[in-house]
Protein backbone atom coordinates (compact mmCIF):
# COMPACT_ATOMS: atom_id res chain seq x y z
CA UNK A 1 0.00 0.00 0.00
CA UNK A 2 1.51 3.26 -1.01
CA UNK A 3 0.58 6.86 -1.24
CA UNK A 4 2.16 8.30 -4.39
CA UNK A 5 1.80 11.38 -6.51
CA UNK A 6 0.17 10.37 -9.78
CA UNK A 7 0.22 13.81 -11.40
CA UNK A 8 1.75 17.21 -10.76
CA UNK A 9 0.39 18.98 -7.73
CA UNK A 10 -1.72 22.10 -8.26
CA UNK A 11 -0.65 24.42 -5.50
CA UNK A 12 -3.34 26.43 -3.71
CA UNK A 13 -1.63 29.65 -4.82
CA UNK A 14 -1.63 28.59 -8.48
CA UNK A 15 -5.30 27.65 -8.24
CA UNK A 16 -6.10 31.02 -6.67
CA UNK A 17 -4.16 33.00 -9.29
CA UNK A 18 -6.03 31.27 -12.13
CA UNK A 19 -9.18 33.31 -11.74
CA UNK A 20 -12.01 34.50 -9.57
CA UNK A 21 -13.16 30.99 -8.49
CA UNK A 22 -15.86 32.65 -6.35
CA UNK A 23 -18.43 29.84 -6.52
CA UNK A 24 -16.07 27.03 -5.35
CA UNK A 25 -14.87 29.24 -2.45
CA UNK A 26 -18.46 29.79 -1.31
CA UNK A 27 -19.11 26.05 -1.77
CA UNK A 28 -15.97 25.19 0.20
CA UNK A 29 -16.93 27.60 2.98
CA UNK A 30 -20.47 26.31 3.35
CA UNK A 31 -19.14 22.74 3.19
CA UNK A 32 -16.73 23.54 6.00
CA UNK A 33 -19.50 25.26 8.02
CA UNK A 34 -21.74 22.21 7.64
CA UNK A 35 -18.94 19.85 8.75
CA UNK A 36 -18.06 22.06 11.76
CA UNK A 37 -21.68 22.57 12.88
CA UNK A 38 -22.71 18.94 12.42
CA UNK A 39 -19.59 17.82 14.34
CA UNK A 40 -20.45 20.18 17.21
CA UNK A 41 -24.09 19.06 17.18
CA UNK A 42 -23.21 15.35 17.37
CA UNK A 43 -20.72 16.00 20.18
CA UNK A 44 -23.42 17.85 22.12
CA UNK A 45 -26.10 15.27 21.34
CA UNK A 46 -24.14 11.98 21.64
CA UNK A 47 -21.16 12.71 23.92
CA UNK A 48 -22.41 15.21 26.53
CA UNK A 49 -25.12 12.92 28.04
CA UNK A 50 -22.39 10.41 29.05
CA UNK A 51 -20.53 13.18 30.91
CA UNK A 52 -23.53 14.41 32.87
CA UNK A 53 -25.41 11.25 33.93
CA UNK A 54 -24.36 7.77 35.10
CA UNK A 55 -24.44 4.77 32.76
CA UNK A 56 -27.08 3.14 34.99
CA UNK A 57 -29.44 6.11 34.70
CA UNK A 58 -28.83 6.50 30.96
CA UNK A 59 -29.43 2.79 30.52
CA UNK A 60 -32.77 3.04 32.35
CA UNK A 61 -33.87 5.88 30.05
CA UNK A 62 -32.67 3.91 27.00
CA UNK A 63 -30.11 6.55 25.95
CA UNK A 64 -27.58 5.55 23.27
CA UNK A 65 -25.68 2.35 23.98
CA UNK A 66 -25.51 2.91 27.77
CA UNK A 67 -27.37 -0.38 28.36
CA UNK A 68 -24.57 -2.27 26.59
CA UNK A 69 -21.87 -0.92 28.92
CA UNK A 70 -23.76 -0.62 32.22
CA UNK A 71 -22.71 -3.67 34.26
CA UNK A 72 -19.61 -4.41 32.15
CA UNK A 73 -16.20 -4.82 33.87
CA UNK A 74 -14.61 -1.55 35.04
CA UNK A 75 -11.87 -1.79 32.36
CA UNK A 76 -14.45 -1.95 29.56
CA UNK A 77 -16.38 0.99 31.03
CA UNK A 78 -13.12 2.96 31.36
CA UNK A 79 -12.33 2.25 27.69
CA UNK A 80 -15.88 3.32 26.73
CA UNK A 81 -15.53 6.66 28.56
CA UNK A 82 -12.01 7.20 27.17
CA UNK A 83 -13.40 6.58 23.68
CA UNK A 84 -16.39 8.89 24.07
CA UNK A 85 -14.39 11.79 25.58
CA UNK A 86 -11.35 11.55 23.25
CA UNK A 87 -13.64 10.96 20.23
CA UNK A 88 -15.59 14.10 21.13
CA UNK A 89 -12.37 16.13 21.39
CA UNK A 90 -11.21 14.88 17.96
CA UNK A 91 -14.58 15.63 16.39
CA UNK A 92 -14.67 19.21 17.73
CA UNK A 93 -10.99 19.99 17.03
CA UNK A 94 -10.80 18.39 13.57
CA UNK A 95 -12.73 20.98 11.49
CA UNK A 96 -10.57 23.87 12.81
CA UNK A 97 -7.47 22.20 11.36
CA UNK A 98 -8.97 22.63 7.86
CA UNK A 99 -9.70 26.35 8.36
CA UNK A 100 -7.14 27.91 6.05
CA UNK A 101 -7.17 31.33 7.78
CA UNK A 102 -6.26 29.84 11.13
CA UNK A 103 -3.66 27.51 9.57
CA UNK A 104 -1.92 30.29 7.66
CA UNK A 105 -2.04 33.06 10.29
CA UNK A 106 -1.51 31.08 13.50
CA UNK A 107 0.84 28.20 12.71
CA UNK A 108 1.59 27.41 16.34
CA UNK A 109 -2.16 27.12 17.13
CA UNK A 110 -2.50 24.74 14.15
CA UNK A 111 0.46 22.69 15.45
CA UNK A 112 -0.79 22.43 19.02
CA UNK A 113 -4.41 21.72 18.10
CA UNK A 114 -3.08 19.14 15.61
CA UNK A 115 -1.05 17.39 18.30
CA UNK A 116 -4.09 17.37 20.60
CA UNK A 117 -6.28 16.06 17.76
CA UNK A 118 -3.87 13.20 16.94
CA UNK A 119 -3.47 12.29 20.64
CA UNK A 120 -7.28 12.19 20.94
CA UNK A 121 -7.50 9.96 17.83
CA UNK A 122 -4.84 7.62 19.30
CA UNK A 123 -6.70 7.29 22.63
CA UNK A 124 -10.19 7.01 21.07
CA UNK A 125 -8.92 4.58 18.39
CA UNK A 126 -7.26 2.18 20.86
CA UNK A 127 -10.28 2.44 23.21
CA UNK A 128 -12.58 1.85 20.19
CA UNK A 129 -10.69 -1.40 19.48
CA UNK A 130 -11.15 -2.47 23.12
CA UNK A 131 -14.94 -1.89 23.13
CA UNK A 132 -15.64 -3.14 19.58
CA UNK A 133 -16.13 -6.81 20.70
CA UNK A 134 -18.73 -5.72 23.29
CA UNK A 135 -20.88 -3.58 20.96
CA UNK A 136 -24.57 -3.95 20.13
CA UNK A 137 -23.99 -4.89 16.49
CA UNK A 138 -22.22 -8.21 17.20
CA UNK A 139 -19.88 -9.46 14.47
CA UNK A 140 -20.79 -6.60 12.13
CA UNK A 141 -19.73 -4.13 14.85
CA UNK A 142 -16.59 -6.09 15.64
CA UNK A 143 -15.37 -6.08 12.02
CA UNK A 144 -16.87 -2.75 10.90
CA UNK A 145 -15.85 -0.65 13.93
CA UNK A 146 -12.64 -2.71 14.33
CA UNK A 147 -11.53 -1.93 10.76
CA UNK A 148 -12.54 1.71 11.22
CA UNK A 149 -10.41 1.94 14.39
CA UNK A 150 -7.36 0.39 12.66
CA UNK A 151 -7.70 2.74 9.64
CA UNK A 152 -8.23 5.72 11.98
CA UNK A 153 -5.00 4.95 13.84
CA UNK A 154 -3.07 4.16 10.62
CA UNK A 155 -4.12 7.35 8.77
CA UNK A 156 -3.37 9.45 11.89
CA UNK A 157 0.10 7.91 12.07
CA UNK A 158 0.68 8.48 8.32
CA UNK A 159 -0.40 12.15 8.70
CA UNK A 160 2.02 12.61 11.60
CA UNK A 161 4.92 10.88 9.81
CA UNK A 162 4.44 12.92 6.62
CA UNK A 163 4.51 16.29 8.41
CA UNK A 164 7.54 15.23 10.47
CA UNK A 165 9.45 14.69 7.23
CA UNK A 166 8.17 18.02 5.84
CA UNK A 167 5.83 16.58 3.20
CA UNK A 168 2.96 19.08 3.49
CA UNK A 169 0.95 17.73 0.54
CA UNK A 170 0.92 14.15 1.87
CA UNK A 171 0.12 15.46 5.37
CA UNK A 172 -2.93 17.30 4.01
CA UNK A 173 -4.12 14.22 2.13
CA UNK A 174 -3.68 11.89 5.15
CA UNK A 175 -5.40 14.39 7.46
CA UNK A 176 -8.34 14.62 5.05
CA UNK A 177 -8.61 10.80 5.08
CA UNK A 178 -8.26 10.72 8.87
CA UNK A 179 -10.97 13.32 9.47
CA UNK A 180 -13.27 11.59 6.96
CA UNK A 181 -13.04 8.62 9.37
CA UNK A 182 -13.54 10.82 12.47
CA UNK A 183 -16.63 12.21 10.72
CA UNK A 184 -18.04 8.65 10.74
CA UNK A 185 -19.39 9.64 14.19
CA UNK A 186 -21.72 12.06 12.33
CA UNK A 187 -22.50 9.97 9.24
CA UNK A 188 -23.30 6.94 11.43
CA UNK A 189 -26.11 8.89 13.07
CA UNK A 190 -27.34 10.30 9.76
CA UNK A 191 -27.42 6.81 8.22
CA UNK A 192 -29.25 5.46 11.28
CA UNK A 193 -31.96 8.09 10.72
CA UNK A 194 -32.21 7.28 7.01
CA UNK A 195 -32.28 3.50 7.50
CA UNK A 196 -34.85 3.62 10.31
CA UNK A 197 -36.94 6.14 8.32
CA UNK A 198 -36.86 3.81 5.30
CA UNK A 199 -38.44 1.07 7.43
CA UNK A 200 -41.24 3.40 8.56
CA UNK A 201 -42.16 4.43 5.01
CA UNK A 202 -43.74 1.18 3.76
CA UNK A 203 -46.48 1.64 6.41
CA UNK A 204 -48.12 -1.16 8.37
CA UNK A 205 -46.96 -2.15 11.85
CA UNK A 206 -43.63 -0.67 12.89
CA UNK A 207 -41.35 -2.39 15.41
CA UNK A 208 -38.91 0.32 16.58
CA UNK A 209 -36.55 -2.17 18.25
CA UNK A 210 -36.30 -4.34 15.14
CA UNK A 211 -35.87 -1.28 12.90
CA UNK A 212 -32.99 -0.03 15.06
CA UNK A 213 -31.34 -3.49 15.14
CA UNK A 214 -31.59 -3.79 11.33
CA UNK A 215 -30.07 -0.35 10.81
CA UNK A 216 -27.38 -0.89 13.45
CA UNK A 217 -26.24 -4.09 11.73
CA UNK A 218 -25.25 -2.10 8.62
CA UNK A 219 -23.88 1.20 9.99
CA UNK A 220 -20.56 -0.19 11.31
CA UNK A 221 -19.51 -0.24 7.62
CA UNK A 222 -21.87 2.31 6.04
CA UNK A 223 -20.71 5.02 8.50
CA UNK A 224 -17.24 5.28 6.96
CA UNK A 225 -16.86 3.45 3.61
CA UNK A 226 -18.66 6.18 1.54
CA UNK A 227 -16.71 8.88 3.46
CA UNK A 228 -13.44 7.34 2.25
CA UNK A 229 -14.66 7.29 -1.38
CA UNK A 230 -15.74 10.95 -1.22
CA UNK A 231 -12.52 12.11 0.44
CA UNK A 232 -10.36 10.23 -2.09
CA UNK A 233 -12.27 12.06 -4.86
CA UNK A 234 -11.66 15.41 -3.08
CA UNK A 235 -7.96 14.60 -2.71
CA UNK A 236 -7.68 13.88 -6.46
CA UNK A 237 -9.62 17.04 -7.33
CA UNK A 238 -7.19 19.12 -5.27
CA UNK A 239 -4.18 17.44 -6.92
CA UNK A 240 -2.91 16.03 -3.61
CA UNK A 241 -1.00 12.71 -3.46
CA UNK A 242 -3.46 9.93 -4.20
CA UNK A 243 -3.71 6.51 -2.62
CA UNK A 244 -2.83 3.43 -4.64
CA UNK A 245 -3.01 -0.22 -3.62
CA UNK A 246 -0.46 -1.21 -6.28
CA UNK A 247 3.25 -1.26 -5.31
CA UNK A 248 5.08 1.99 -5.95
CA UNK A 249 7.10 4.68 -4.30
CA UNK A 250 6.10 7.92 -2.71
CA UNK A 251 6.99 10.66 -5.16
CA UNK A 252 8.34 13.95 -3.91
CA UNK A 253 5.62 16.58 -4.15
CA UNK A 254 6.19 20.20 -5.21
CA UNK A 255 4.77 21.40 -1.86
CA UNK A 256 7.55 19.68 0.11
CA UNK A 257 9.46 21.89 2.43
C1 LIG B 1 -13.60 6.82 13.84
C2 LIG B 1 -13.35 5.82 14.67
C3 LIG B 1 -14.33 5.35 15.69
C4 LIG B 1 -14.53 4.05 16.05
C5 LIG B 1 -13.78 2.85 15.50
C6 LIG B 1 -15.57 4.01 17.03
C7 LIG B 1 -16.03 2.87 17.66
C8 LIG B 1 -17.09 2.84 18.54
C9 LIG B 1 -17.67 1.66 19.11
C10 LIG B 1 -17.21 0.22 18.84
C11 LIG B 1 -18.68 2.04 19.92
C12 LIG B 1 -19.62 1.12 20.71
C13 LIG B 1 -20.82 0.83 19.84
C14 LIG B 1 -21.75 -0.16 20.47
O1 LIG B 1 -21.69 -0.41 21.66
O2 LIG B 1 -22.58 -0.72 19.73
C15 LIG B 1 -18.75 3.47 19.87
C16 LIG B 1 -19.67 4.24 20.56
C17 LIG B 1 -19.60 5.60 20.66
N1 LIG B 1 -18.70 6.43 20.04
FE1 LIG B 1 -17.34 5.87 18.69
N2 LIG B 1 -16.00 5.29 17.26
C18 LIG B 1 -15.25 6.14 16.48
C19 LIG B 1 -15.32 7.53 16.44
C20 LIG B 1 -16.03 8.30 17.35
C21 LIG B 1 -15.99 9.73 17.43
C22 LIG B 1 -15.14 10.66 16.54
C23 LIG B 1 -16.84 10.11 18.40
C24 LIG B 1 -17.15 11.52 18.77
C25 LIG B 1 -18.39 11.95 18.87
C26 LIG B 1 -17.41 8.91 18.96
C27 LIG B 1 -18.32 8.85 20.00
C28 LIG B 1 -18.99 7.72 20.40
C29 LIG B 1 -20.13 7.73 21.29
C30 LIG B 1 -20.78 8.95 21.92
C31 LIG B 1 -20.51 6.40 21.44
C32 LIG B 1 -21.71 5.89 22.23
C33 LIG B 1 -22.78 5.63 21.16
C34 LIG B 1 -24.17 6.08 21.51
O3 LIG B 1 -24.46 6.45 22.63
O4 LIG B 1 -25.02 6.03 20.58
N3 LIG B 1 -16.89 7.83 18.30
N4 LIG B 1 -17.78 3.94 19.04
Secondary-structure element string: EHHHHHHHHHHHHE
Termini, distance in Å? 24 Å
Largest sheet: 2 strands, antiparallel
Helix content: over 70%
Instruction: Give the bound compounds.
Output: protoporphyrin IX containing FE
Strand residues, percent = under 5%
Radius of gyration: 20 Å
Helices, by number, come to 12
Main structural class: mainly alpha
Order of adjacent strands in the largest pleated sheet: 1-2
**Which descriptor suits the 3D outline?**
globular
What is the topological layout?
Layout: E1 2-4, H1 12-17, H2 22-52, H3 55-60, H4 66-69, H5 74-97, H6 100-105, H7 107-131, H8 138-164, H9 168-182, H10 184-200, H11 208-222, H12 225-237, E2 242-244
Antiparallel strand pairs: 1-2
Helix pairs in contact: 2-5, 5-7, 7-8, 8-9, 8-11, 9-12, 10-11
Bound molecules: protoporphyrin IX containing FE.
Residues 42-43, 46-47, 64-65, 68, 83-84, 87-88, 90-91, 124, 128, 131-132, 135-137, 141, 145, 148-149, 152, 181-182, 184-185 line the site of protoporphyrin IX containing FE.
Mind explaining what this structure looks like?
- With 257 residues, this protein is an all-alpha fold.
- It folds into 2 domains: 23-135, no CATH class; 138-257.
- It has 12 helices and 2 strands.
- The protein has helices at 12-17, 22-52, 55-60, 66-69, 74-97, 100-105, 107-131, 138-164, 168-182, 184-200, 208-222, 225-237, and strands spanning 2-4, 242-244.
- A two-stranded antiparallel sheet has the order 1-2.
- Helix 5 (74-97) packs antiparallel against helix 7 (107-131), helix 8 (138-164) runs antiparallel to helix 9 and helix 9 (168-182) packs antiparallel against helix 12.
- The longest helix has 31 residues, at 22-52.
- Residues 1-22 and 249-257 have low confidence and may be disordered.
- Bound molecules: protoporphyrin IX containing FE (HEM).
- Protoporphyrin IX containing FE (HEM) binds next to helix 2, helix 5, helix 7, helix 8 and helix 9.
